[in-house]
Amino acid sequence: MLTIRHKKPECIGCDMCVELAPAYWAMGDDGLAYLRIVARTRGDFSFGEGFEDDRDLLIEVADECPVAIIEIG
Length: 73
Ligand code: SF4
Known about the structure:
The protein is an alpha+beta fold.
């Protein structure tokens, strides 16, 4: 499994991650995207897991996030 790191408080709500990878992100009532499944949190960071088959998609999302708050490991 891949590790997804998301710094939700810095999200600007552009909706890109939700559009590209709705299995992983959803838009909250607060206008910030959130990881659907959070394995753990640390400070401002939420950590989730991604399937290896979704590697290219998740890297695309991380690359396209306009505020670069998504990292895939
Ligand atoms: S792509 Fe980045 S800024 Fe846009 S909604 Fe997702 S986390 Fe927020």
